[in-house]
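Researcher: I'm preparing a figure for a lab meeting and need a structural model of a single chain. I don't have an experimental structure, so a prediction will have to do for now. The sequence is pasted below. Please return the structure as C-alpha cells so I can convert it later.
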Amino acid sequence: MRTARPGAQASARWWAFACGLVFLASCMLAASASAWVPHLSVLFSAELTPDPDSKLPAPTRYSYRGIHTTVVLGVETPLRTRLEANVPAEISDVLAFYRTELGKLGWQEQHDGATVSADYVQLAFVSPLGPGMLALDRKATGTAVNLVQKNASVATNANVMPEPGQAKLVFSNISETDATLAINDRTIKRAGGTRAVSLDLKPGQYSYELSVPGRPATTNILNLAAGDTWELTVGRDGEAWSPLLLY
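Model: Understood. Here is the structure written out cell by cell.
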C-alpha cells in the first residue's frame, strides 16, 4: 500500500539573497565616504512571488522546501501531498500569500476551527481535489509552512476513505509470517502476504500492539483525527514500520 516520495531542495535565490547581504554590508561601509546607500525597501520587500514549478503553492523565496507524497501502488496520482517549507518572511505576509494563491486555485477556506494568531495559523480548506490544511508557525528565521492536499477520488477508489466523522486504520502484513494487531479491545490476525484489512474508528487516541512470532512486540500510540487514514505495516523482514498517514 505505502509508497512515500520525499523531496527537498535549497533555494538558489535564497543563497543569492544571503550573499547579497554581505555585498550590502560592504556597500554601507563605503557609503560613509561616497554618500551612496542602496534602496532598502526593494531589497527587503515583503512581497512573495509564487513559484510556478512547485506542485503546491509556494513562494520563490525560501531557505528550505520539500514535497512529500503518499501513493497507492499502481496509481500515479497521490493520495496525499504535503509541502513543508521555511520562508524568510513575516507570518502575516506568508498568510496573505497563501490566501491569495490558494484562492486562485479554487481552495475554499473553512472558518470553523480556524486559528489565526501572531505566532501560529491553522486553516482548513476544501480544494477541488479534496480536503486541504495550512499551518504556519513563526520561527526565529521566518515562517515554517505545512500545506496538505488530499485527493478524495483516489482515496475512494483505493478503499481508504474514512466514513464521515470517522478515522480509518489500515493494517498490512507483507512479511512471510503471521502478524497480530491489538487495538481498541480488538485483536486482528493476518497471515503473511495477505491483503490489508481496514478498521473504522472514532477520532481519539489509541494505544496499540503489533506482534510477530520471534520478535519483541511493538507498542505505540496513534492520535486519529476525523477524516484521516493511517497505515500500520509489518515489513518483509517481520519488523513493524512506523505509522504512516496515508490520507
